[in-house]
Amino acid sequence: MATLPKNIASIKLKIISPILISYSCYNYSLKKNVNLLYNFTVESEWEGQDFDEDKGKVEHALAITHELNPSTTIGMQAVWEIKIDDWDHRGEDIVSIGPSMAWQSAGWWVTVAPLFQVTDVDTSPDLQIRMLFGIDF
């Protein structure tokens, strides 16, 4: 039986707080049914028995999308992650790109995007399948 390389894929679940973590700061309509989107994210993580191991991440995400109909959108995404170990020194940059598909209805939306790493960072997976889910308040 063949085995997959250690970092070929990763599954991670995040609950994103709209208060601090993610803010969509740019949405520009290029022409009818085509949008350019930019998101800036700052993430902090505490690990260890006493939560004394901390690290951070700054993320820039850029997407161009096309609205097929009022509830379905397709597009391309690029994500640039900058890891910051102990919040005092910068780690390796990771860039991933890939297609995306989104569905929306009254009060909710979901986006699925397989992102392929284009940098050569061995400690990061070569493929991320990102799913973002949102509820309007």
Offer a few descriptive terms.
eight-stranded mixed beta sheet; 0% helix; mainly beta; single chain; 8 strands; 137 residues; globular
What's the short version?
0% of the residues lie in helices and 68% in strands. The chain has 137 residues and is mainly β. Strands 1-8-7-6-5-4-3-2 form an 8-stranded mixed β-sheet, with no helix packed on it.
Question: How would you summarize the topology of this molecule?
Answer:
Blueprint (H helix, E strand, L loop, with lengths): L8 E2 L11 E10 L2 E14 L5 E17 L2 E14 L3 E17 L2 E10 L9 E9 L2
Parallel strand pairs: 1-8
Antiparallel strand pairs: 2-3, 3-4, 4-5, 5-6, 6-7, 7-8
- Return the structural class: mainly beta
Mean pLDDT: 79
- Taken in chain order, the helices and strands follow as EEEEEEEE
Q: Hey, roughly how much beta strand do the residues contain?
A: over 45%
The helix tally amounts to: 0
| Count of the separate structural domains | 1
State Rg: 17 Å
Shape: globular
Strand order within the widest sheet? 1-8-7-6-5-4-3-2
| pLDDT < 50 runs, ≥5 residues | 15-26
* Main β sheet profile: 8 strands, mixed
Number of strands: 8
Distance between the termini: 48 Å
Description of the molecule:
The chain is mostly beta strands. The chain is built from no helices and 8 strands. About 9% of the residues have low confidence.
